[in-house]
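User: These chains co-purify. Model them together.
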Amino acid sequence: MQRLMEAGIEEFAEYGLDRAAMSRIADRAKVSVGVIYKYYEDKDDFFLACVQHSLKLLENAMEQVIVMEGNLENCIENLVHTLIREAKEHPAYYVLYNEITSGSCKKYAKELAKQIESSASKVYEELFRKAQEEGRMAYQGDSKMMAFFFDNLLMMLQFSFSCQYYKERMKIFCGDEVEHHPEEMGEVFIGFVKTVLGV
Amino acid sequence: MQRLMEAGIEEFAEYGLDRAAMSRIADRAKVSVGVIYKYYEDKDDFFLACVQHSLKLLENAMEQVIVMEGNLENCIENLVHTLIREAKEHPAYYVLYNEITSGSCKKYAKELAKQIESSASKVYEELFRKAQEEGRMAYQGDSKMMAFFFDNLLMMLQFSFSCQYYKERMKIFCGDEVEHHPEEMGEVFIGFVKTVLGV
DNA sequence: AGATAACGTGAATGATAATTCACGAGTTGC
DNA sequence: GCAACTCGTGAATTATCATTCACGTTATCT
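Assistant: Joint model of the four components:
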């Protein structure tokens, strides 16, 4: 049931796992609570399904960008632009992503991390390893580390355009206007990364 | 009451705001629940006090490093080393910090962000502005942005040595050993930042 | 010592919200 | 038409805490 999952994602993003109410989710989806329990074991199970679904959608959006062979520079530019656009367009997905890093999801941390981060880590590492080999990158350290730092920056960027706290934080660092000019932030970010790469 | 607050910090770090139980906190502190309500309005009030207290301790640890005038390079090295050490030594403080970025603290996001991020943002911006003026830094973009990206990296580094999910994530990116060799990670991180700065 | 106040206690209360289940309503097959 | 079955309903049940408060216990003062 599509409607149900969308309702769940909205509710969980708005209230977090613990404060989300199953009855409110049912209302949002215009079904009765019972239905949720026909499809899912319990609240946790449903939450994980919502998270899974969100991440799948994010992955889809990213895949097209990443696959794009060729120019490292273009690839990064595309990546950053897509990321910011997605974060502004579907903040709920990213809020859920942030939610799983919090205390209420401790139980699932390991499994979820493996599931979510494995592919990105491989892709980025490969990207930078190649760039190093071909001498297109000044930074000569471990490409795994490079991938880690790069993804750290991307993650923070996503959160900064979707999660309440990180939004406020970005405004403090960069000024109130930045919120409404995501493209500018994107450009500066790309410039920053290029400096590191030495392109 | 010192013991009470320590118990609170541990409990909130372990379970998150919503799943923490006041009765368990009382047990940990070896007092009865009633006592907590003699000192604090309600659970939220107590939680905020714990967060406040954690952040104060972190600030204290950082202040000494930041104040240290002179060499930008040394300053950054010190900063990174201190940060990693603190994150490993007092993970609970950082877990609480991460907790306030999650859904359960939405209400307080704006206020907390202002309180926590304002000083760091000023310090870093100033640091980089000076470095630019004195020609010790290759990156010539907006120093505010620079400060933002830099703090993003630091934040992720802190979380990566304290919060469950981020720990798992780091292991996926960098290998299982990294957890037990934080110094190495620190060195690589410093090298990475220096590349950006062009020192 | 006795009075008074300050401090602490933890069982009782109440609210919230997850989960269940006895019951329709609609659908399919014969 | 009528079983048998699927799908959905939402009031009732239940568990979990946050919060309160009537009652001890200890400390202070005279």
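Residues 3 and 29 of chain A are 6 Å apart (CA to CA).
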